[in-house]
Amino acid sequence: MINLGVIGANGKMGREVVKLVLNDDNFKLVCAVDKFNVGNVLNDSVKIEDDIKNSLISRKPDIVVDFTQPSSVFENIKTYMQTKTKAVIGTTGLTKEQIEEIKKMSAQADTGIIIAPNFSLGAILMMKFSQMASKYFSNAEIIEYHHNQKKDAPSGTSIKTAQLMMESNDNFKLGNCAETETVKGSRGGTYQENNKGNIQIHSVRMPGFVASQEVIFGSDGQILKIHHDTINRECYMSGVKLAIEYLYKNNSFIYGLENII
After folding, report:
1. I need a labelling partner for 83 at 20 to 30 A (CA). Which of 148, 151, 206, 231 fits?
2. Predicted TM-score (pTM) of this structure
3. Nearest alpha carbon to residue 133 among 156, 175, 159, 164
4. Predicted confidence (pLDDT) per residue in 181-226, tens digit
C-alpha cells in the first residue's frame, strides 16, 4: 500500500489525482492540501488542509503528487526535499536553472523526485517521434494549444519537446531569410540553449482546448506533422500512476516521463 498526498487537491488535475488514488486498491490517500475549500472531506479520514509542511509532517505520505501553480511549485519542492518526502511534480513553469537546483536538492536530501511536463503516454510518444524526426529535417516549429486558464507559456511539454529535438539537431532555421515582425510576437518565441536549437514555439490559449501540440517539420518538397490531442484529463492518470509506482521503488531524480517508460 502506497500512502499518498495530493497537493493542489481542489484543482482540475488535483481532483483527477484524488479520484485515481481513491479508486486504486494499492493507493491510500493520507493527506490533501489546497488553499481553497479547506476542511472539505475527501474520504472518511482526509480533509483538505492549507499548510503543506504541517500536513507532510503529521500525515507522513510516502509520495506527494503536486499539481499546483507555477508561482508556488519551486517553494513547494523545497518543502518536499526538506521533509524528505518523495514527489511527483506535474506543475509546469519551472526554469532550466530551477530544475538543475532541484536535481542538486534531491541528491543532497537523498529523496527521489519525478518532474514530468506531461503524463499522457501519447504525448510522450509524440515527443519521442519528434526527436527521431529531427535527425532528418532542417526546419521545425512547434504549436501548442491550451485552455485560456493556463498561466505559463510556452507549455512545459513544448519546452521538453524542443530539448529532445535539439539532442538530434542543433539548428532548425537553416536557409531562413532575415525576418521583420510588423506585429511583435507574430513569429512566436525562439527556444535556444547556448545559441543552439532555434525552434519557434507558438502558444495558443483558447476556451475549448484541454491540451494539444503539433510539431511541424519541413524540407524541400515535403512537410511532416506530428500531432497529439488531449481530449480530457483522465488520459494523464496512467502516467501519474506509472510515476508513483516507479518512485515508490526508486529514489532518483527524473525529468521527463520518457525516462521511465
Report:
1. 151
2. 0.84
3. 164
4. 899 999 999 999 988 899 999 999 999 999 999 999 999 999 999 9
